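tool_call predict_complex ligand=coproporphyrinogen III
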Amino acid sequence: MSPPTQPESVFLRALSGETLATPPIWMMRQAGRYLPEYRALRAKAGSFLSLCYNPEMAAEVTLQPIRRFGFDAAILFSDILVVPQALGQKLWFVEGEGPRLEPVGDMARLGEIDGQADAHILAPIIETVRLVRASLPRETALIGFCGAPWTVATYMVAGRGTSDQGPAKALFTSNRVLFQMIIDRIVAASIDYLCAQIEAGVDAVQIFDSWAGSLGADDFERWCVEPTQRLVEGVRARHPRIPIIGFPRGAGRLIPHYVGATGVDVVGLETDIDRTFARDEIQSLVPVQGNLDPLVLRAGGPELEREVEAVRAAFGGGPFVFNLGHGILPDTPIAHVERLLAAVRR
Ligand code: CP3
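tool_result ok
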């Protein structure tokens, strides 16, 4: 089954199950602080969120790594936390620290959060998709995304990033009904948000579940698998052919079940996964994407060449998209990214 819009995209061919001699490549966080042209535009915008909500600037930032490196896919420049903001929760970023959200502590506060996302807030991001699609080369695919309900909920409940997702876990333990309501609102808003991105021209979507690995098997089922399954089903009901990439980071041995139960078409693999297991038990089910260690990319040298070969040796025999196991680190030298591309395309 070849995708209708971009038949010549090697990225979409790999997502649809084709094994390619040279795997397509893109990098999570490929538009970002390691690029001087990103830092310049970010300074001009004044803040990260002003950059996200300015369609011309966000489109430019999305295109920067494509122009410089010629990746096979661009990823929309935005953030997973714009969904809580569209649901009515205040969001800001503290320079050098990270995101802050007004915490959702109790029923009363949650009642103020709309069931539906405010389309006005997300409109500039959808406009960014249109601008990028119009100026991307036809052979370069455009990836849209959202956060998975569990990961987004961890930020909504804690009001910030946490190392152990403690506040969200405490809430689902003490008030399951309230936590379920938060999850349900994220699912509904994310279905609409992904569908709007698809209607504006993205060729595939990725669901980022950065904290999937922090849940035990039963909680993983309830707070990761079930909501993701509903999200996938909701998007498919309107756009049956869009390729959906799941990235349940840290889920390891639970990934084969996640793939079967959620219905994602492709799965992103974290750095730490056992590659033999991933090839035999995951790539046998769906195409995979990953999983070079961002620390190895930052370090460079012969270890980088060796690891690129190890990743290709593990996954190159089946449908595969080369990527990192998590986002590129801001202090990664550009020369190392160039070497990575040369090694993958050699
Ligand atoms: O991959 C891409 O280049 C697309 C854009 C993108 C960003 N964030 C841009 C960004 C995507 C897909 C994300 C996803 C995201 N955002 C996740 C899931 C993936 C992951 O990294 O685990 C999460 C948990 C967030 C929330 C978030 N956004 C945090 C915790 C932070 C602070 C940490 C940091 O790196 O600064 C951000 C900020 C952020 N999102 C930046 C970028 C380029 C840095 C902002 C800056 O310029 O200062």
